[in-house]
Amino acid sequence: MAAGGSIFNAMLQEFDGAARLLGLDPGIWKILTHPKRQITVSCPIQMDNGEIEVFTGYRVQYNITLGPAKGGIRYHPDVTLDEVTALAAWMTWKCAVAQVPFGGGKGGIICDPTRMSRRELEALTRRYVAEIVDAIGPDKDVPAPDVNTNAQVMAWIMDTYSMHVGHTSTAVVTGKPVEMGGSLGRREATGRGVMITTREAAKHLGFDIQSATVAVQGFGNVGSVSADLLSQIGATIVAVTDWKGGVYNAKGLDIPKMLDYMKQHTTIDGFPGGESIENAALFALDVDVLVPAALENQITAENVGEIKAKVIAEGANGPTTPDAHKTLHDRGVFVIPDILANAGGVTTSYFEWVQNRHGYFWEEDEVNRRLEVKMCDAFKDVLQTSIKYKTDLRTAAYVVAISRVATVTKLRGMYA
């Protein structure tokens, strides 16, 4: 449950504003605000000490009008059905904004993976997949990595599913190791999308990204790649925080050295290239761009008054509460919403799925070139919609997404 209420209700608030602007048909409105399917499973496994533990897992398929459900699986002690449902809804809109033929899904298991052995994690993954195996598949629902899951977990999922169906099915998951059908460029794709949309925002707003200062919250896959790619196009990364601590250097941080430090220490806390900084201070920095790339509900009514950034590029899902977003919009802060800014991941997941189904794989340059085209098109569509409706980018992104899903819902008609 989110601080201050349901994460799903926060998603509905965002949806409602856009739906009103669109004049959405009341019947379609009802359909698009209800998840198609919510699955709850119990996953008993034998722990290394011989005891049996039963873990609760979820898989939500929010909407599959445009294609198979698509979305990650997270392992975290605080996973709730409400959170997974909201994330599945956001995936629905994200896929529609990016114009990839997927619906929205999400999964999660309530567990603390930091306190589990590799064998326990593999056993839990395989049991979870066995419990939901009838609901997933290349044409039904295609999982991917999320918080605390990675390419290895996807390999276990693919293998378990393949054992059940009796043949190797690479297209059942994305974010796999490249050796077993993963796409080149997939690991960097979400961060690359953040970089592309931030660069396009700078062009629109008329400031030079090469002289821009950037602060990044989170140095996991999304945050670290965003920081690295933004620094490669000339931006100065002045501050980064992660789960344990943070580093600030007004002259700029050496991101390649930070990446090496991260590999050795699993945190950037204590990195010698700057002074220590906490999240609260990072949000208050006078920078051009702020990239929240950690968890939900980081920018709230309590801390929004501290933010001085011109642009916020939401690398994480749902990092800004609706109240905080309204304040930012009223102050003229240019917020690139999550369903646009971090859509690079699902776009390249789509590319991976396509490659798996064709049995033909692209060079990394081609993956990145195709991603560049898709992200620039999505940014342009959302920006033009925001100008047309005289609204902020988040509402505009929802207008674009809802319009696309609603159109196909009407065309397909009502099955009864």
Description of the molecule:
- The chain is an alpha/beta fold.
- Helices cover 46% and strands 17% of the residues.
- Among the domains are: 36-169, Rossmann fold (3-Layer(aba) Sandwich), CATH 3.40.50.10860; 188-341, NAD(P)-binding Rossmann-like Domain (Rossmann fold), CATH 3.40.50.720.
- It contains 14 helices and twelve strands.
- The protein has a seven-stranded mixed beta sheet with strand order 9-8-7-6-10-11-12, with helices on both faces. A five-stranded mixed beta sheet has the order 1-2-4-3-5.
- Strand 11, helix 10 (322-330) and strand 12 (334-336) form a beta-alpha-beta unit.
- Helix 3 crosses helix 14 (393-412) and helix 4 (118-132) packs across helix 5 (151-165).
- The mean pLDDT is 95.
* SSE string: HHEEEHEHEHHEHEEHEHEEHEHHHH
**Any idea what the radius of gyration is?**
20 Å
**CATH architecture level-2 label of one domain:** 3-Layer(aba) Sandwich
For this structure, what is the CATH class of one domain?
Alpha Beta
The 3D shape can be described as globular
User: Could you tell me the strand content as a percent range?
Assistant: 15-25%
Number of helices: 14
**Structural class of the secondary elements?**
alpha/beta
- The CATH topology of one domain: Rossmann fold
- Give a quick account of the main beta sheet: strands, pairing sense, barrel closure: 7 strands, mixed
N- to C-terminal separation?
A: 35 Å
